[in-house]
Amino acid sequence: MYKEIIQKAIEAREKAYVPYSNFLVGAAVRTKEGKYFTGCNIESASFTPTICAERTALAKAISEGYKNIESIAVVGSIEDYTFPCGVCRQFIVEFGKDIEVIVAKNTEEYQVYKISDLLPHSFGPEDIENV
Ligand code: THU
Q1: What is the residue extent of each domain of the chain?
Q2: Reported CATH class of domain 3-129
Q3: pTM of the entire structure?
Q4: Ligand 1 site, CB within 6 A
Q5: Which of 11, 58, 105, 121 is the most exposed place for a label (fewest CB within 10 A)?
Q6: Which helix (H) or strand (E) covers residue 6, if one does?
Q7: Greatest CA span in the chain, whole angstroms?
Q8: Cβ-based neighbour number of residue 13 at 10 Å
């Protein structure tokens, strides 16, 4: 069931631009319409502008008009599960507390979480709706 999205994340990982860390990460987003968007991490010589694979993939989906996000798969290290960083967790929860986060080593070894479990008691759009 998760093979397709993981495979896309694995392929996106090959595109990682990581001259500083050498740590390749790939991500794939699946929308509720069944569309996929992929991303890799892109580093910067001044470090701070570095963007994670998860945010690259999400930015592609949102900027193409798809914000009904169903799930996101992440493949970093192939020996260990790579979880989204704090910034990415916040970026993901913006688009839904039920989004599934699949952390994978490969298409056979993966774990599935809900973003609300990875970022409990989150601050999100509902908190500023009526300001
Ligand atoms: N990174 C990601 O792309 N996603 C994660 O979930 C963890 C970290 C990237 C940022 C940086 O390019 C490299 O991994 C090392 O931190």
Answers
A1: 3-129
A2: alpha beta
A3: 0.97
A4: 18, 21, 23, 25, 41, 43, 50, 52-54, 74, 76, 82, 84-85, 88
A5: 121
A6: helix 3-13
A7: 46
A8: 23
